[in-house]
Amino acid sequence: MKSRKTSIQLVSLAIAIGFLLITSCSDDDNDSVQEVSNFPSSYVEILNLKKDKARYNPGEQVDFTVSSVHPNTLVRYKYLGETVHEEPLAQTAWSWQPPSEDFKGYMVELVKQTDGEETILGTVGVDVSSDWTKFPRYGFLSDFGNISESQRSSILNNLKDYQINGLQYYDWLSKHHIPLPLDDAGAPLDQWTDLFNREIKFNTVKGYIDEGHDLNMASMFYDLLYGAWNPESGDGFQEDWVIFNDQFHNDINRHDLGGLGSIWVTDPNNSDWQDYIFSKTEDVYNNLDFDGWHLDQLGDRGNVYTYGGYQVNMRNGFHNFLNELTAAFPDKKHVLNAVAQYGQSEILSTPMDFAYTEVWTRSQYADLAQVILENYEMSNGNLNTVLAAYMNYNASEGYFNTPSVLMTDAVIFAFGGDHLELGEHMLSKEYFPYNNLAMDDELKSSLKEYYDFVVAYENILRDGGNTVLPEVSSPQVGINNWPPVFGNISVVGKQFDNRESFQLINFNGVATLDWRDNNRVQTQPTSFSDLEISIHSNSNVSKVWFASPDYNGGASQELEFQNTNGQVTFKIPYLSYWSMVVFEN
Fold first, then answer.
1. Is the residue at 454 inside a domain?
2. What is the average pLDDT across 199-226?
3. Domain of 67: which CATH number?
4. Which of 157, 210, 302, 314 is deepest in the core (most CB within 10 A)?
């Protein structure tokens, strides 16, 4: 969180995708496609469909509410475009028992039927997963002062409605080497101050954890895996645990905090440091029901040495520390931030529960996808990725630029990643309490649809499959395989045993390919309706269906198609930022 170091170069399975560009012909015949400049930029729910939790264990009941009941409206429960159950909407509160199979996402649609026509009045995604880290949707909390129970409930329920299933508790701690301060009798203090002299209340932290668990939201405590801030006599901290910039232990390696002092960086390989910080971690778990530890680092520290003058391999130290940590706390979740990918290979060779990267120097949309693919490869295809990617970073007031946020999320989500961005506010800096930018109503509404979409189609977006380069074309608009090209639609293909998926990300009409969009110049892409696309498939395609977070709340829709010698041609009803097409075999 506190460093912006240069990333290491890694080779990933996306290397072929990164440089292979397949472009289609484009002609002047635009009769069958319509640019839709006045189409609503975001879908607005009519009945405000909500569910009671962020995630459901297999066998757990889902409770729904709506704001009102419309006549001739059905509740339709779907799994990857197929209806698994349907019933009339008869009241404003009801329950559903999903299938008991683990790690499945469902879309629930409210469908009003009028004279043979169907209108979507509301949608919500339902995640049935016994372990939240399989499909992490990570949020944060950053204020632990005098927050009332009603305030906590409002914040958590809002995050639940955005499908957040895990929370990082940022700067809740007292000192990095003593996260939870205890009194002489070994009981936690009622309150303390954090690094920046902000008041922290024990009952606020505990209340968030307990109330989050009621919503099936996990809580991860934030702390460095190395480091001591303002160590004092009686702390039990030893200077020979730190690393030095010289071989004669004269110059301690520090992370300067200006007038607040500095953090002394410890050697993660040092077994005495490990024993010490693990004992402090035990104090945390003995008093607060955290689900795990979100570990942080400070990036590449350069050439550093032990107290005895031996050079320290910090990356190997991550590996060593994390293996010892997971052995000491096998029932807890663990994730370590790879700052600009520093040490990620060593990190993901240990039993981490998901991958996490704080993105700094990689500035293009293609870079975000590359990081996700790198992490997938380094974890042998076992872990999904969360990106800490701070939007509109240089802006100091006003609103987030909605197009830049939605385009960034479209790219991250289409590649199976998650974006750490939502807490008590939306995130724009590495210091999480910073809250100078606001979300406008369009962004608030659109993001709910995006997160519902990610949940409903998690088994396509985040559950295996092999990345492929489809033969794709359109007679009306430029279309190419990833990476993005100005003016074109970029396609990300994925092959499964019984289906193929194609993520269509629209860069036609955008102002920049820089995801962070520091100057808030990004524009909404040109929207299209009835866009004809052809994709070659060697499979026996039996069904083609479509869904988009920008259209009808992500509700799926079967498409008519023609298959001529493996060339599958169809029209998608709408494309703004991101649409998905699936071939069933």
1. no
2. 98
3. 2.60.40.10
4. 314
For 51, the enclosing helix (H) or strand (E) is strand 50-51
Residue pair 56/76 in contact by the 8 Å Cβ criterion: no
What pLDDT, in 10s, does the model give residues 73-128?
999 999 999 999 999 999 999 999 999 999 999 999 999 999 989 999 999 999 99
Name which residue leads in pLDDT, 539 or 30.
Answer: 539
Range of the domain at 190: 138-353
**Crossing angle between the packed helical segments 402-414 and 441-456, to the nearest 10 degrees:** 10
User: Widest CA span of the chain, in angstroms?
Assistant: 84
Q: Is the pLDDT of residue 155 over 60?
A: yes
Residue 236 lies inside a defined structural domain of this protein: yes
| Separation CA 464–CA 263 (nearest Å) | 40
Who wins on pLDDT, 23 or 292? Answer: 292
Q: In the structure encoding, which two tokens stand for residue 360, read together?
A: 């700094």
Q: How far apart are CA 489 and CA 38, in angstroms?
A: 20
> In this structure, are strands 489-495 and 557-559 parallel, antiparallel, or unpaired?
unpaired
Contact 475, 27 (CB under 8 A): yes
Within a domain: residue 412? no
Long-range contacts of 148-151 (CB under 8 A, 24+ apart): 149/207, 149/211
User: What is the structure's pLDDT at 42?
Assistant: 56
Express each pLDDT in 305-343 by its tens digit: 999 999 999 999 999 999 999 999 999 999 999 999 999
Alpha-carbon gap, residue 452 to 123, rounded angstroms:
8
How far is 135 from 127, CA to CA, in rounded Å? 9
| CB neighbour list of residue 407: distance below 8 Å, 6 or more residues apart | 365, 505, 510, 515, 522, 525, 577
Which tokens in the block code for residue 224? Answer: 């460095």
Other Cβ atoms less than 10 A from the Cβ of 215: the count is 17
- The letter for the amino acid at 398 is G
Q: For residue 424, is pLDDT > 80?
A: yes
Angle at the Cα of 211 from the Cα atoms of 205 and 212, rounded to 5 degrees:
85
Helical segments of 356-494, H only: 365-378, 402-414, 441-456, 458-461
Helix axes 271-287, 314-328, angle to 10 degrees: 40
Alpha-carbon distance of 305 to 562, in angstroms, equals: 66
Start-end of H helices in 256-355: 271-287, 314-328, 344-347
**Residue 35 pLDDT level (bands cut at 50, 70, 90):** low
pLDDT at 233: 87
Give the domain CATH number at 267. Answer: 3.20.20.80
* 479 part of a folded domain: yes
Q: What pTM was computed for the model?
A: 0.94
CB 444 within 8 A of CB 406: no
Query: Other CB atoms closer than 10 Å to residue 203's CB: what's the count?
Result: 13
Pair 287, 220 in one domain: yes
Tokens of 336: 């370590």
